[in-house]
Amino acid sequence: MRLMDLHLSEQHLAFRDQLRVWLNTNLTRPWREEWRDPKATEDSLFELRRRWQRKLYEAGYLGMDWPREWGGRGATEVEKAILEAELADADAPQSPNMLGIGLLGPALIHHGSEEQRRRFIPPMLRAEEIWCQGFSEPGAGSDLASLRTTATIDGDSFVLNGQKVWTTFGPWSDWIFVLARTDTADRYGGISFILCKLDTPGVTVRPLRQITGESEFGEVFFEDARVPRQQLVGKIGEGWRIAMTVLAYERGAMSLAYAVRFGRDIARLAQACREHGRQGSAVRERLGRLIVENEVMRANGVRNLANFADGKVPGPESSIEKIFWSEFDKRFRETALDLLGAGAMLERSCDQARTDVDWARDFLWARAGTIYSGSSEIQRNIIAKRVLNLPTEGR
Ligand SMILES: Cc1cc2nc3c(=O)[nH]c(=O)nc-3n(C[C@H](O)[C@H](O)[C@H](O)COP(=O)(O)OP(=O)(O)OC[C@H]3O[C@@H](n4cnc5c(N)ncnc54)[C@H](O)[C@@H]3O)c2cc1C
């Protein structure tokens, strides 16, 4: 069942149908099959994602809500959500420049100079320059304003010193957008937003191997790395404000796309239970519960989409969505391992043996969603403050 068959306007239905035709023609192999191809490596999969992003861009499906002037489509949030759900339904690869397009693009459009937009946006959309996000540090994650990387002004340059961590796609990236301190005395007003090429002398990227076996993350070290002053976005000291506006884009209305992916994996789990002889009322009850929770998530996504369609600005509901899909992902993957038993743990992927659904890998990866782009505790704090008007905790 297609999960996007909602009460869409004629215009939205036309957009969706066109998109389905395009996907049928252009997506030759679902991501799961690419992933489990025994010849696939992390590098080859990354390059495949790069090629896919270029195709999406050429067809006008990237930067959906950006102005046309900057390579976008000027589309609505509803069309953006339709796109995400259809991509999920077709099991398309994810764009490798998602941090550039998701975060830096909006930062440049809203706060960058004309020259910066012309220089950086086109190669970002074409996946010719891959971007990573240098916000978190070993001592600054949830409490991002504690960051200690410094950018000292020296003539026409900033001199960067410090360390970033959990840098997604760091090992494959060409550029990083960095939050760095230009004033150590001013907690929020002393942070600036700086673009740095990763092959700058003094910059070192080290891959971090994860518990899933992949090395998608890196840590980035800056030791007297000189960056031209024109690579400052906005004004000195505006970095915090810029970061907070762009982070709101990261949470977005994603529940519908997640509901499509989870729905497909729940069906696969039911199939695997049948194949492994896991039957009976207890199993049926747990599978039924997953389906109900997924439907609740989908309904919540539809509600948020209706708000978007009415022109409402996303508020704390994006935190509610984020908690729901990420915590549900964890519960779902735990249930899968419980139901399938020890055998599922043996189906762990490594470069040599990828399996259809890698239950153990998905179980491990599900932890990540409750941490990145604001952990569940931080989302609950936002809801407590902005929805329930509860007092903030003391520091
Ligand atoms: C998959 C993934 C991808 C990531 N990609 C990037 C990236 O590309 N670039 C980047 O800059 N960063 C990235 N991060 C880092 C991410 O932003 C941080 O991990 C996140 O902000 C949490 O910070 P931390 O890891 O330092 O944990 P901490 O902030 O130290 O938190 C530890 C625990 O304490 C809890 N906690 C902290 N503060 C509070 C509070 N006030 N109230 C209640 N509980 C609290 C947290 O919820 C958590 O459970 C990524 C992380 C993951 C998991």
Protein architecture, described:
The chain has 395 residues and is α+β, with helices and mostly antiparallel strands. The chain folds into three domains: 10-96, Butyryl-Coa Dehydrogenase, subunit A, domain 1 (Orthogonal Bundle), CATH 1.10.540; 131-247, Butyryl-CoA Dehydrogenase, subunit A, domain 2; 252-386, Butyryl-CoA Dehydrogenase, subunit A, domain 3 (Up-down Bundle), CATH 1.20.140. The chain contains 13 helices and eight strands. It has helices spanning 10-26, 31-36, 42-58, 77-90, 98-111, 114-125, 239-251, 255-275, 281-309, 317-340, 342-346, 359-369, 376-386; strands at 131-134, 150-154, 157-168, 175-181, 191-197, 203-208, 217-228, 232-233. The structure holds flavin-adenine dinucleotide. Flavin-adenine dinucleotide is lined by residues 99, 132-136, 141-142, 166-168, 368, 371-372, 375, 377-378, 381. Residues 99, 132-136, 141-142, 166-168, 368, 371-372, 375, 377-378, 381 line the site of flavin-adenine dinucleotide.
Quick overview:
This protein is of the alpha+beta class and 395 residues long. It has 13 helices and eight strands.
Average predicted confidence as pLDDT: 90
- Helix content, binned percent: 40-55%
Shape: globular
Radius of gyration: 22 Å
Strand arrangement, major sheet: 1-4-5-8
CATH class descriptor name of the largest domain: Mainly Alpha
Total count of strands:
8
- State the end-to-end CA separation: 48 Å
Order of helices and strands: HHHHHHEEEEEEEEHHHHHHH
Bound molecules: flavin-adenine dinucleotide
Number of spatially distinct domains: 3
Proper CATH architecture of the largest domain: Up-down Bundle
The major sheet is characterized as: 4 strands, mixed
